[in-house]
């Protein structure tokens, strides 16, 4: 990981300036045919900006050393969709289902270092950074994965009719980004990954998150048992909630996605209510955990860059975050898999490309998972 970057606001030597955005040199875009974890990281990293003063230099180097990054641009080259020139940005957010190290107990299986993208979201930040649209990508979607080169330089041939999350397990972050760009024809400006163990500790550091369940949840696979009612979930319970797929709905990944989206909004409410920025110790604990938890693209690979970027997201409230699931239909040949509804999905990609709200027609009559409304913020 390279820690070299122009110092950002609130860091010793920082100027608060941002460099210009350059358009990609690769192929031009074709004319149009007609996200859980990110935001808690954003809020806590943004808090670094307000620290300043005594000890800020030590804190910067300590937190900067925690971060891990991957050079997505170098791995993918210039044959990519162009960057948007309308003030919007797209971030691919993955929840890492790694089986290595501290995640072995949480993820199950063996400590073999293998990993999958258990959760995948495209977070579209609208111009002005006051609104966001989030598109969850079901991990069980059958897609045609393009050939890709991972960040180690290893090449992986294309594959047809494979699960979406195989892109990450095959070629890591670079392959996941390339696959999303091939599906959407949208440039992913940034990449952010959060792992199981880090997510759990973030929730504990925050003091838990309060949610209300309209139905009882009992899923021995995710070790979650909740009666209907209001609960303050600790880290282990929160992880169980965002991973459960058999405790509610139809047992599919689509139901789990609906729980994840509801939990993220509850999490944002909690960050607003807990007074993170007025409590220096809590802020430090969260920043320490957050920087150890995430892996980013090299453009966000330092505390300066991450804090500057995250500081621009503070104005996005839960009420201004529109969350949908990529439109899919159950595969007639296998009910455990889903197929992309390309025409409906194109409405979403066109809306994001032109920085417009996602139309309701894009997600109407799409497979849903039957878990909507089970969890909400109190």
UniProtKB/TrEMBL annotation:
Annotated segments matching region Disordered: 1-35, 94-113, 355-378
Pfam families reported in the protein's UniProt record: LytR_cpsA_psr
Biased composition (Basic residues): 20-35
Keyword Membrane: yes
Coiled-coil blocks: none
Regions that span the bilayer: 37-61
Domain Cell envelope-related transcriptional attenuator positions: 116-272
Keywords: Membrane, Transmembrane, Transmembrane helix
PANTHER family: POLYISOPRENYL-TEICHOIC ACID--PEPTIDOGLYCAN TEICHOIC ACID TRANSFERASE TAGU
Family the entry assigns: Belongs to the LytR/CpsA/Psr (LCP) family.
Entry protein name: Transcriptional regulator
Organism: Streptomyces djakartensis
